[in-house]
Design a protein that fits this description.
Length: 471
C-alpha cells in the first residue's frame, strides 16, 4: 500500500484503478481518509457528521465483492461526503437548522442513492448554511467552516463543507447542489473543481419544486477527470424527476478528452458590467493569454443578461416560499433572518411578478442560444470577491458598489444560473495573499461533455489545482 499521504492526495480515478488491480483495498483507502478527517477536521469543521464505523463496514463489503469476482461499480471503494442537505438513510441530516438538528431520514436522496449504487462509501456529511441559503457556510447547529488556505476566511457556500473536505484531503469526491452558485463559489474559494450540470442532467428527488430548472445537484472534486467520474454516476433518467434527461451518465466517464480544434472563446471579465474586486481581476488577468496560447480565438464578449438578476431574485423567492414557507410561518424567528426575508419576498410576489419573470427568462434564453451560435465557451469570474472574513455573513459592497441583499454579491454566478447552461469552476489563480480564485466556464445548454473537455484543457495548461493548502 502507498503511504497515507499519497492515498489522500491521489485522484479518484487513480484510486479506483489501484483498488480494481488489487494494489490497494477499499479498507485501506477508507482508513487513510478517516485518519485524515481525524487529523484536520476539528480545525476546519467541514465534515459535521462522521460515519467511520459505517464506512469501514461498507469498505469491507466492497473488498469482499472484489475477492468473490463480483462486478464492481464505477465508484468502487471511493470515500465520499454528502452535503447535509441531502437525505441519507439512517444518518443524521440536519439541513443546517436547529429545527431539524435531530433529523434522521429513512430514505436516501437520489444523488446519494446513485453514488452508493456505483460503489462509493459514505464517510460523512458536509457542512452547509441553514437550508443552503447563502454563499457562506455557517449555521447554528455546527458553526462555521473555515477555509484551509486561511482559517480566518470563509470557504464560500452553500456546498462549503464539501469543498473544504476536498481541498484538505479528507475525501476524493463530494456531492453538492447549486441554485445561485453553491457548487461553483466554494470551489473557487478553495482551489477545487465544482460543476453545475445542465438542469435535469443530475435528477433530484425528493424535491418540492420538481419542475424547476433553477437548482441542480452535481459533482465536486480536485480535478476535472474526477468530477467527470462522479457525474457519470450521478447522471441519467429517473421517473421520480420530471425534468431528468434520458442520456446515460456513461457518456461522461473519464478520461476526459481535450478539444482538438480551434475554439471561439468569449472572455467576459465582468460579465457585462458587474462590479469585480481588483484582486479577482488581477488573479484572472492571464486567462485570455492561456487560451490564445492553446490556439484559440479570444474576444471580449458576453450575452445580454440585463434582466437576469431580477428574474433570478423572483424565481428564487418563489422557490423559498414553496419549500420553506410553512416552516417559517410555524417557527418564525427560529429560522435565520435571511431565510425569513427570502420566504416573505416570495409570499409577497404577485401574479404579474411571476409572468414578468417567466417572460423575461424566455427572452434571455433565446439570447443565450444566439450567443452560443457564435462562441464555443464563455469565460468569466466565479466570484466577484476573493474569500472574505469568516465572521462576515455576506458581502455588502463590491469594488465600491453597495449590495442590498445577501445574494446580490454573487450575480456573476446567479446570472449564469438563469442562462440554463452547464457551468464549472476550475482553479485559475491566487491573490497576492495566497487566496484561491477560480475561473467560470460556461457552454451552450446541455453541452456538459464539451464543458468538461474545455475545462480539462485549461486545467492541463495551468496546473493551478495542484497547489495544496499550507496546513
Amino acid at each position: 500500500m502507498q503511504n497515507s499521504e499519497e492515498v489522500i492526495w491521489s485522484r479518484a480515478v487513480d484510486l479506483v484503478d489501484a483498488m480494481r488491480s488489487g494494489k490497494m483495498s477499499a479498507t485501506e483507502v477508507v482508513t487513510a481518509h478517516l485518519e485524515r478527517i481525524e487529523d484536520v477536521n476539528a480545525g476546519l469543521n467541514a465534515i459535521v457528521t462522521v460515519t467511520a464505523d459505517h464506512a469501514l463496514k461498507l469498505a469491507k463489503a466492497a473488498d469482499d465483492r472484489q475477492a468473490s469476482g463480483e462486478p464492481l461499480g464505477l465508484l468502487h471503494g471511493l470515500p465520499i461526503a454528502h452535503k447535509d442537505l441531502a437525505d441519507t438513510a439512517g444518518i443524521l441530516t440536519t439541513y443546517g437548522s436547529p429545527l431539524t438538528a435531530r433529523n434522521v431520514p429513512t430514505e436516501n436522496a437520489l444523488v446519494v442513492e446513485r453514488s452508493l449504487h456505483a460503489g462509493a462509501i459514505t464517510v460523512g456529511k458536509s457542512n452547509t448554511p441553514e437550508f443552503g441559503a447563502g454563499s457562506q457556510t455557517f449555521n447554528a447547529v455546527f458553526g462555521a467552516t473555515k477555509n484551509p488556505y486561511n482559517f480566518d476566511k470563509t470557504c464560500g457556500g452553500s456546498s462549503g463543507g464539501a469543498a473544504v473536505a476536498l481541498a484538505a484531503g479528507m475525501v476524493p469526491l463530494a456531492d453538492g447542489s447549486d441554485l445561485g452558485g453553491s457548487l461553483r463559489n466554494p470551489a473557487s474559494f478553495t482551489n477545487v473543481v465544482g460543476m453545475r450540470p445542465s438542469p435535469g442532467r443530475v435528477p433530484s428527488w425528493p424535491k418540492a419544486d420538481a419542475w424547476t430548472h433553477l437548482s441542480t445537484e452535481g459533482p465536486m472534486a480536485r480535478c476535472v477527470d474526477d468530477v467527470a467520474l462522479l457525474l457519470a454516476a450521478q447522471a441519467g433518467a429517473d421517473p421520480r424527476s420530471p425534468i431528468a434527461m434520458e442520456l446515460t451518465g456513461a457518456k461522461f466517464a473519464p478520461p476526459v478528452q481535450e478539444p482538438s480544434g480551434t475554439l471561439r472563446v468569449a472572455w467576459a471579465p465582468d460579465l457585462g458590467g458587474l462590479p469585480i474586486d481588483p484582486e479577482v481581476r488581477a488573479a484572472l488577468a492571464h486567462v485570455p493569454a492561456v487560451f490564445e496560447e492553446l490556439g484559440h480565438e479570444v474576444v471580449e464578449a458576453h450575452p445580454d443578461l440585463t434582466e437576469a438578476g431580477r428574474v433570478f431574485d423572483t424565481l428564487r423567492a418563489w422557490s423559498f416560499a414553496l419549500g420553506l414557507g410553512s416552516l417559517v410561518k410555524e417557527h418564525g424567528d427560529k429560522v435565520k433572518d435571511t431565510v425569513q426575508w427570502n420566504v416573505q419576498r416570495g409570499l409577497d410576489l404577485s401574479m404579474e411578478d411571476h409572468m414578468d419573470a417567466w417572460r423575461m427568462r424566455g427572452e434571455l434564453y433565446q439570447r443565450v442560444i444566439t450567443f452560443f451560435g457564435n462562441y464555443d465557451v464563455l469565460l468569466c469570474p466565479v466570484a466577484q470577491v476573493p474569500p472574505f472574513d469568516v465572521e462576515t455573513e455576506w458581502i455588502s459592497e463590491v469594488d465600491g458598489v453597495a449590495m442590498t441583499t445577501y445574494i446580490e454579491w454573487m450575480r456573476v454566478c446567479s446570472d449564469v444560473t438563469i442562462m440554463n447552461c452547464p457551468a464549472i469552476s476550475v482553479p485559475a489563480g491566487f491573490t497576492e495573499h495566497g487566496l484561491p480564485i477560480g475561473l467560470q466556464l460556461v457552454t451552450a445548454p446541455r453541452s456538459d461533455a464539451r464543458l468538461l473537455s474545455i475545462a480539462k484543457q485549461f486545467e492541463t495548461a495551468t496546473s493551478v489545482g495542484e497547489r495544496r493548502p499550507p496546513m
